[in-house]
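# nightly structure sweep
# worker-07 picked up a monomer target from the shared queue
# config: single-sequence mode, recycle default, output format = C-alpha cells
# input follows
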Amino acid sequence: MLIYHKEVQSEKELLEVYPIIKQLRPHLDETAFLTLVSKAQASENYKLFALCNDDMPVALAGFLPRVSLSQGVHVWVADLITCKKHRSKGYGKQLLRIVEKWAREHGCCTVALSSGTARKRAHRFYEEKMDYKKASYLYRKTLS
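# output follows
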C-alpha cells in the first residue's frame, strides 16, 4: 500500500477526484466544479491536494493562502473531505498535516477552517485529534 499526496491541477485529475468532492459539495455538478476550481486556481492561488492510496484518491483538501487583520498570513481550508468508504483510517489527519506543512513552508502562521454546524463528528476530529480550537462562529447571508 503506497500512500502519497499530489496537487490536483489538470482537468483529467479534477474529474478523477470529482466523486469525492461531490460527497462534500453535492450542489456542484462536474461543469460547475471544473469552472470554480479553474477560476480559484487562477485568481486566488487555490490549491487542491489529493491523498492517494495506490493511485486511488481517498481524501481531498482545498485551501487558499490568505492575509487578514484578525489572523495575519494564514491558510484557509475551504474544502476537506475523506471519501466515505475510507474514513477512520487516518487519511484526514495525514492530509491536514500536509496542509499545515505547506502553510509553514509558505510563511503562514495559522491554518483556519469552518465546519457546518451539523458535522459533529468532524468537530470532534478537529478538536480532539488535530488540536484545533473553536475560535468563532461563521455567519453567512445569501444575496439575491
